[in-house]
Amino acid sequence: MSFQQCLTCKENVRYSTKLTSIFFGYRPITCKACGTVHEVDERYRFLFSLYTVMIPVILVYIITAIFSIESRLVQVLLVLLLASGSVFYAGTRISYYKSKVQPTKKRSRNEV
Ligand SMILES: [Zn+2]
User: Fold this and answer.
1) pLDDT tens digits, one per residue of 50-59
2) Residue 44 has pLDDT above 60, yes or no
3) Is 105 inside any structural domain?
């Protein structure tokens, strides 16, 4: 199940918020409504570094071999294109959990 809403108050978490988090190195997401901090699931970090680095590089390697593209610039651009595509995909699949370190002002007792 992908992360769609705050785990405490069910406030919707926007897709763009998740993308921003991913772009800034999986920055924790803080719920605007209740202030609960959510962190990226470690397994997803690994999985998405695979998606955003390994797979684009391998694909471009294959594509440039097939079409015999010699230009280094085109290769780099293709990698960037695929990598950013992967980030958008990651945004739909990424999962967060409630951080153990919450802002101190109110520690919620209703954790599951
Ligand atoms: Zn919330």
Assistant:
1) 888 888 999 9
2) yes
3) no
> Cα(65) to centroid of ligand 1, in Å?
49
Q: Is residue 8 part of a domain?
A: no
Domain extent for 54? 15-98
C-alpha 34 to ligand 1 mean position (Å): 4
User: Three-state DSSP class for 15?
Assistant: helix
Ligand 1 centre to CA of 92 (Å) is 19
Cβ(47)–Cβ(12) under 8 Å?
no
| Å from CA of 38 to ligand 1 middle | 10
Does a structural domain hold residue 90?
yes
Tokens at residue 14, please? 């926007």
The number of distinct structural domains making up the chain is: 1
